[in-house]
Amino acid sequence: MAEISSRKKRFWLFSKSMHASEVRLAWLLILPTAIIVFGLVLFPAIFSVWISFHKIGLYNLNDVFHAPFIGFDNYKSVLSDFAFKWGGPKQWGAWVTTVFYSFISTFITLIGGLIAALLLNRPFRGRGLARSVFLFPYVAPVISVAFVWRWLLDPRPSGVLNHILISLGIIETQQAFLATRGLAIWLVILFQAWRYFPFAMLMILARLQAVDDTLYEAASVDGANTWQKFISITIPQIRYVLGAIFLLRLLWTFNKFDDIWLLTGGGYGTNVLPVLTFQFSFNMYDFGKGAATAMMMMAALIIFIIGYVLIIMRNSEEV
Amino acid sequence: MSAFPQQKQAQKGNFIDQLARSLSWEKFLFAVGIFFFLSMILFPFYWMVSSSFKSGVEIAGRAPVYIPSSLKWDAYRELFDPAWRSFQNFGLNIINSMLVAIPTALIAVILSIMGAYASARLRFKGREWILNGVLIVYLFPAVLLMIPLFAMLSQISQRFGFNVQDNLVILVLTYLAQTLPVALYMLTNYFRTIPDEIEQAALIDGCSRFEVIWRVTIPLAIPALVTIGIYTFMIAWNEFLYAFIFLNDRNTFTIPIKINTIFNDPSPRPHVVMAASTIMTIPIIVLFLAFEKYLSQGLTSGSVKG
């Protein structure tokens, strides 16, 4: 009897204070993460809005909070900057380059991923191994693969692409491919597709494997060939995952700094907004201008996401 | 005896017949496709490894050396041998990278266990708010954050008198800030798939919350924890931008910054760059192959930003 009552008592104690102590415990557990994320992501994000309206250089970096307020001057200065604005077909400017590069490379990445996923969706010996190998470009460190590409495209006679093209008689003398305006941006796009197609591939493959086989069987009975099956079964089935990957990859490509910086340093018509942000802040030490560029990137992204969600999501509800 | 070769020939004929019958445009295209992808992917990796075993003469030759005749250790000796002319002391950079990547991975796992347990199991106000806020962090690119972080940290360092530049701890913190939200999100989802009843039973048996987490929740979540640990390790190991901004002193360089420095050296030595890249890539590829099953799942759940 005594045992039961003591147990009851304990249970009662437990349940009464449970909620309060649970809340306390929860906040205690989540506090370190919250502090780190707030202090090093959310606060800096808000702070960068503030920076974009102030004049901050290396000279007053130690006394940021007393930096002079200059309104929209940083934004005006970015918008009229030679490197940012459209200057005709020979001088695209960073924002046109960024939009062109992000859309085209996302598109090619998606196509590459789709083809790879279709290949790997067929059973064959060594499929598991092939799938792992297909993921190598995505998991390998960006700096090593970017420098391998630069070494493959090297203008010296020992550069592989130069050697191949000269042996085939396509070019006469060695070319500095990554330092050729017009060509460099396409090489950067190709590099992006090479490096990021595995991400698209994995997502598409996961969706493909969930497609109901009976759909294909029914189509075969109706006499559909492979192409017809692809167009009228596979594509509709994976439409949404394609849309989602397109959005994700576009966002990440839009913000990507490392790849272009390491391949071309933003030169030869490959200057994109992230690289420009870096140059304004860490080469010219105009942090206000850099922050203004970053804010414009953010604004463009937010507008794009809202538009995308409004259009795509609405359509998906109708269908 | 004489029947034997005939039989063999018949078999061979059979084989060719079979091959001819099974060959179709579809299969041909498929084989070409697989071959195309494999060679496009593997050739750069082959080129990285094979270039690292070439001598300076082969590298600067009149044509690329596709298959090195012998393994030359020049590049590796430049990286590790103090007696070499332009010794790079690469061992130090490997240690620096480990000093950043291993603590980042361990702390990310510990903090995300705590946070995810709270948001999956405990009821408190603001829980959904935190989980949604975590996803918003997805939106903030590193490029956006580098300026305010740089300004903020130099301000803090001014006030409290420590060095922000050349401080590996700062790098660990910034990497944690980038990876924790996603780790938290992944692990919360994983914890929600573990039936609550097991933990309730342990609680009623008189275990404290921490005993429950330690003895029940963590052992059940090992696969997710491994995934998070390896991801954060990979991200910290590969990261370039923040390290590039925050590290100025040679002695604190992580591997990517060191490779960048060697690459931009006035006398170009691609074989050394490739050797350093090989050393940097191999642990990542090995980790990836060893834990591929978990990692692919994580990839498809969209957990890695990149």
CATH class term of the largest domain in chain A: Mainly Alpha
CATH superfamily of the largest domain in chain A: MetI-like
Number of domains of chain B: 2
Beta-strand content of chain A: under 5%
Supply the helix-strand structural class of chain A. mainly alpha
Q: In this structure, how is the largest beta sheet of chain B organized?
A: none
Order of helices and strands of chain B: HHHHHHHHHHHHHHH
What is the general shape of chain B? flat
The CATH architecture of the largest domain in chain A can be given as Orthogonal Bundle
Which word captures the global form of chain A?
globular
Sequence stretches where pLDDT stays below 50 over 5 or more residues of chain B: none
User: Rg of chain B from C-alpha positions?
Assistant: 27 Å
Could you please say which CATH topology of the largest domain in chain B applies here? MetI-like fold
Largest sheet report of chain A: none
- Largest two-chain interface: A-B, 90 and 93 residues
Give the N-to-C terminal Cα separation of chain A: 65 Å
Helix proportion of residues of chain A, in percent? over 70%
Question: Could you state the order of secondary-structure elements of chain A as H and E?
Answer: HHHHHHHHHHHHH
CATH class of the largest domain in chain B: Mainly Alpha
**Radius of gyration of chain A, rounded?**
27 Å
Distance between the termini of chain B: 66 Å
Key traits:
heterodimer, A: MetI-like fold, B: mainly alpha, MetI-like fold, 2 domains
